[in-house]
Design brief:
Layout (H helix, E strand, L loop, with lengths): L2 E8 L3 H4 L8 E8 L4 E6 L3 H10 L2 E4 L2 H9 L12 E3 H9 L5 H9 L7 H9 L3 H25 L1 E6 L4 E6 L3
Parallel strand pairs: 1-4, 4-5
Antiparallel strand pairs: 1-2, 2-3, 6-7
Helix pairs in contact: 5-7, 6-7
């Protein structure tokens, strides 16, 4: 399937699960396939198809997928999700900087645009049955991740704002 970009949204919050990621449950997920040049939407009853697509990818690119998304998917498969060739942008940037940055922060500083909501908004939309809005939100996160990946690959760095000095700085990337 080539390289894919992906994100998952959940039905529950950390507060509801006592911080247990494996109990958050999938509300939806979105994958962008470079090979197919399109976004693919998944609901919870299609998670097996999502996992199959992830395992058939040459590389899965995401933001905090090693620290979050794969854990959310764990209850849905016996397969080792952590064996998938993965590029976690947040983890790579954390290695370089020594601290974590949010997707919204990086998008604002590097792309000049932010996210369309938060994970808690996504849970609210799921519970309100606003599935189209939920999928749009998730797809936009995948789009931002893809754009950050491509920008970093092209110029060799992304921007972030130093909180102490309130100065815009570059962080080197090599993906």
């Amino acid at each position: 399937m080539g390289k894919v970009f992906f994100d998952v949204e959940t039905k529950k919050s950390f507060q509801e699960t006592g911080g247990r990621k494996e109990e958050l449950l999938v509300s939806c997920a979105v994958l962008f396939s470079e090979e197919k040049e399109r976004f693919i939407h998944f609901r919870e009853n299609q998670v097996e198809d999502l996992i199959e697509d992830l395992f058939s990818a040459s590389c899965v690119v995401g933001f905090n997928i090693l620290g979050f998304d794969y854990y959310v998917l764990k209850p849905y498969t016996e397969k080792d999700l952590f064996s998938i060739p993965t590029l976690d942008l947040m983890k790579e940037l954390q290695k370089e900087l020594g601290f974590r940055l949010s997707l919204d922060h990086l998008a604002l500083e590097s792309l000049g645009k932010g996210k369309k909501g938060s994970g808690l908004d996504a849970i609210k939309w799921y519970r309100e049955g606003k599935i189209d809005q939920l999928l749009e939100y998730c797809e936009y996160d995948v789009q931002i991740t893809k754009e950050l990946y491509e920008l970093g690959k092209k110029q060799g760095f992304l921007y972030y704002r130093d909180k102490k000095e309130m100065e815009r700085k570059q962080v080197s990337v090599s993906w």
